[in-house]
Amino acid sequence: MDNSISRRIWGPDAGSSSPLIIAEIGTSHQGSIGRALELIDAARESGADCVKLQHVYADEIIHPETGMVPLPGGDTPLYEVFRSLETGSAFLEAARSHAETLGIGFLCTPFGERSLRELMQLECGVIKIASPELNHVPLLQTLGKSGLGVILSTGVSKLADIEEAIDILRVNRTALLHCITSYPAPAEEYNLSLLPHLSALFGVPVGVSDHSLDPLLVPLASLYFGGICIEKHFTLDRLGGGLDDPVAQPPEEFERMSRALRYWSGRPHEELHAFLVQEYGRERVEKVYGDGKKKLAPSETENYGRSNRSIHATAAIRPGDRFDTSNIAVLRTEKELSPGLHPRYMKRILGRTAARPISDGKGVLWEDIL
C-alpha cells in the first residue's frame, strides 16, 4: 500500500483523481490494539484512502520536566501521557497489516531517530513528519539518506524553515502539507491560496493537514487550490479521551468530507467556488483563501520556537562537562522550559565543553558552551 500512496502523490496518478484522504488516528487508540483496529475499520468505512498512526517514545519528544501542556482536552501532563502511549513496533506492524488487509494505505509519524529506524525496519516506504519536527535537523538528515518518500507538515513554520527542510530532503520524494498548529485551528486563518505558491516555489506536491472543526470548508477550499492530499484527525468519539479527540472528525463527519472531496474533484473549479460561497458566505470564504503569503497564523504565533524543536539538557551539566547524546537532545520546548539553540547546531555542539552549569531540561545556548 506504500506504493499506492506514492503513486497518488508523486506518480502517474497524482492530480488525476480525488485527493489522497488520510485519516490521522494518531494516538486515539490510547495504547489498545483492539481500539486501533476498530479505528482503522471505521476510517476505511468513512472513505479514508489511508490511515496514519504515531510512533511515540516520550523521551524523543519532550523533557520529563515539561510540565502541564494546554491541549484541547485541558492541561495535560504530556510526558507521562506519551509514556503511556509507547506501543512499540509489534503494535504498529499489526495495525499496518490490518490496514493492508482492508486495502488501504498505512502511514506513521516518527518523532526521533529511534522511532524512524524502527519504521524503516517495518519497511514503511513513505514517512509522515509532523509540523513540530520540521526543524528537527538530525531526524531529517537521517531520513534524507533513506530514500523514503516524505510527507512534511508545515505548521508553526516560516518560509525559511520549510526551505531548510526541503534542502535536507532534496534527494527524497517530498510533499508538503500546509497546516496551522493550533487545536482547533480557525478555518479563516488557513490562507489556502498559498498552496500553488508553495508547490511552484519548492517544486513539490502540496496538500493540507486540517485541524479546523468543519468537515468541508478547509478540505474543499484546499481542493479548489490544487491540493492533492487532505489529512484530518479521526476518532470514534470526540469524548473518547484521546489527546486529539476533541478536534477530530467522528466517522459520520469524516465520511461527509470524503464524499464531498470525491464529488467535487470531478467538477469544474468555478462550480466548487460557487458552492463554497453559497454554503459559507463570500466574506468567510475569502478569509479562508487568504492572501497567499506564507506567514505564521495568529493562532500559532506564540507556539513558534516552543512547539517545534531546540537543543535541551537532558541531565544536570556542570562546567567542564562535555556535551554528548547522554546529556543533550533535540526536543520540543512547550510552555514551561526555556528554548535552546536550533537543532541545526547539534553536531557543532557535540564534543564541546560546558562553560557554566546548565540545569536539567534547560535550553542550551551559545553562552553555555566554551
Radius of gyration: 20 Å
For the record, the CATH class of the largest domain is: Alpha Beta
What is the string of SSEs from the N terminus onward? HEHEEEHHEHEHEHEHEHEHHHEEH
What share of residues is helical? Answer: 25-40%
Distance between the termini: 50 Å
Q: Strand fraction band?
A: 15-25%
Query: What is the averaged pLDDT score?
Result: 95
Give the biggest sheet. 8 strands, parallel
Separate helix tally: 13
Number of domains: 2
Q: Class by helix and strand content? A: alpha/beta
CATH homologous superfamily of the largest domain, by name? Aldolase class I
CATH third-tier fold name of the largest domain: TIM Barrel
Descriptors for this entry?
single chain; 370 residues; alpha/beta; TIM Barrel; Type Iii Antifreeze Protein Isoform Hplc 12; 2 domains; 8-stranded parallel beta sheet; two-stranded antiparallel ribbon; 12 strands
